Amino acid sequence: MTATHDQAQAEIAHEQAYVDAVYDRLDESAKVATSLVKEGYARGHVGNEGGLVERDAMVFQASKRLAALNAAHDGLVFGRLDLTDGHARYIGRIGVRDADREILLVDWRAPAAALFYQATANEPRGVIRRRVLRSSGKTVVGVEDDLLDAEHAPDDMVVVGEGALLASLSRARDAKMHSVVATIQKEQDEAIRAPARGATIIGGGPGTGKTVVALHRAAFLLYNDRRRFESGGVLVVGPSGVFMSYIERVLPSLGETAVTLRALGEVVDGIRTDRHDEPAAAAAKGSERMASLLSRLVTWSQPGEPESFRFFYKDDVLRLDQRQLRGIRRQLMSNLRRNQAYAKAPGALVDALWRQVRGERALEKGKEGFADEITGSAAFREFVEDWWPPLGAVQLWRTLPQVIEPLASRTYSRDEVAAMKASWEQHAEPSIEDVPLIDELRYLLGEVPVEDDESDDGPRELMSFERAERERRNELRSTSSIEDDGFAHVLVDEAQDLSPMQWRMLGRRGRYASWTIVGDQAQSSWPHRDESARARAAALSNLPLHEFRLSTNYRNSAEIYDFAAEVAKVAAPDADLARAVRETGEHPQHRVVAAGDEIGAVAQAVDELAGRVEGTIAVVTAVTRREQARRDLADALAPHGDRVRVLDGLDTKGLEFDAVVVLEPDEITDESPSGWRTLYVVLTRATQLLTTVGTSDRWLKRVR
């Protein structure tokens, strides 16, 4: 029977009593874990190595369990299943047992919890009622029921609410993504529980839950094969720092803290950037052509590199000219990376010079005496350091503005070269699009071998005060070994935006990994689909694919999404359009104003929207306008505090807001070849209200 207010309150009180019991048991478990941490530290005082090892193991395991218990504390119990066998099964963020080892709470990832997500009214699978508990901290504030099997429902069974999913869709958004573990739908659950091996591809239009499903999948994999994925590592890669900040709470709220989150500008250790290049430079840097250009760069003469060497030895004048030096370089790099060949360079030079020795006195000393004398020469050591210095990836990347024109003359157009050169000359630090180039150079250069004084394979590796000086001049550098880049699982969100060079960078992290790849081609900001497809295939290296399509838009109102879908048809005629399930009666508003009035119109629109929605608001502009818009709107937006953010279209990827104001949509569509797809992304960030403001309406005439 449908619940009255009093019946609903009685149901909440009943669930509160059960939740209290679970929290009591959780607190007891936390106390045990805390005592184990203390006991572990105490064992470190036994005075032997075994005690220290035992201490470290005990402290590590107990601390990990304590972190999981603390992380899962809020909203711990979120679901209940009433089964045809008369039993009730409670579902939560982690598993909890009572003192007698009886199950109080089933971990949502366990097979026993699968019914919570997979049972439907058409196929109830032994479930009569599915209940979602809404909590604030430890307090149950509401319940939402789905009656799946009315035929077997007891006459006195109470059904509360409109259904958990629709109830959750109408709530206000804040600045963080939350787990949807209580409202996962059947098609989403199938993707979450896909086989661990291979690559799971999750597609679908905006608002279908691709991102949060992928994050829940990461938690599911860690639960089912913890040894593999926790020891090998799980890497989650998203488009921006804004996005990573938005999703950072999801996995900890599911009890998982051992995951690496990286924006594309942070994938290489030691490098951190959130700046995008202008579209022309970004497309040129991301092209598959860049890989061959960087291969040539590694063998290229460095700026300021000496072109010849002369040495007086006994009665001989020994010379190496530019042609001979190039030949030695080719010989060294024929089977070694540049930095691996660093220790071999002095020996190769000695060999080439010894072949020129003709004087009788010199020959009497033999090659060994010659090598001792020349390698002891300050002039020779300085020449080697200048001719074949160990190169860092960032150091070599900084030379690109000086050499890009001859390097790129056969593979890039003049306009592309000019765009790349301008980007490097205008900004001293790397952009997001430069990070894959630096990573590529790390692998092309290799790492400087550890110096071995015992080695007698040619002259000893040379050192110089000049190297320290070079390092001081190049403080920005990657900080990890290329041997430490690999992960057991790689999760890539907004994968449709990845350039071939970014796929190469991620492919190196996932050489032996399973993958979860999330994307929607209609939202792609990368203009060359075929290039990207080839690069993705190379990164996945023939792994078996498990493909899933999410078909229902849970984010946008139908009024907003239906309008955005018209933009999608301009952006990508073959767009994968989802079905929006929620109607509000609020249609998008479009305001065309005179030039110079657009900032005031945006400020007015934000004020109006702030009075109508409880959560967050975004003002979205073209990339080139964002910083100026932030300055122009700073005073007007200040009273709204953190509720309102000014972002460009690329920064909005993966985010959602209660309301969105789009400033000059025509600028977004005109900004790049993928401008219409970017506008489609922007429009679908709004969950409740959408307003556009512009001094022109060319874009609007194309979709009406």
Which tags fit this structure?
704 residues, alpha/beta, Rossmann fold, 6-stranded mixed beta sheet, 6-stranded parallel beta sheet, 21 strands
Task: Explain this structure.
Helix content is 44%, strand content 16%. The chain has 704 residues and is an alpha/beta fold. It folds into four domains: 5-169, no CATH class; 186-269 and 480-553, P-loop containing nucleotide triphosphate hydrolases (Rossmann fold, 3-Layer(aba) Sandwich); 279-473, no CATH class; 558-703, P-loop containing nucleotide triphosphate hydrolases (Rossmann fold, 3-Layer(aba) Sandwich). Strands 3-4-2-1-5-6 form a six-stranded mixed beta sheet, covered by helices on one side. The two termini are 47 Å apart.
How are the secondary structure elements laid out?
Elements: H1 5-43, H2 49-71, E1 77-83, E2 88-92, E3 96-97, E4 103-107, H3 114-118, E5 127-136, E6 139-147, H4 164-169, H5 186-192, E7 199-204, H6 210-224, H7 226-232, E8 234-238, H8 241-247, H9 250-253, E9 260-263, H10 279-286, H11 289-299, E10 309-313, E11 316-320, H12 322-332, H13 345-354, H14 360-375, H15 378-387, H16 393-397, H17 400-408, H18 414-426, H19 435-445, H20 465-473, E12 489-492, H21 500-509, E13 514-519, H22 529-540, E14 545-550, E15 552-553, H23 558-571, E16 579-580, E17 589-592, H24 598-610, E18 617-621, H25 626-637, E19 644-648, E20 657-663, H26 665-670, H27 675-683, E21 686-694, H28 698-703
Parallel strand pairs: 2-4, 7-13, 7-14, 8-9, 8-12, 12-13, 15-16, 17-21, 18-19, 18-20, 20-21
Antiparallel strand pairs: 1-2, 1-5, 3-4, 5-6, 10-11
Helix pairs in contact: 1-2, 5-6, 6-7, 10-18, 11-19, 12-13, 13-14, 17-18, 19-21, 21-22, 23-27, 24-25
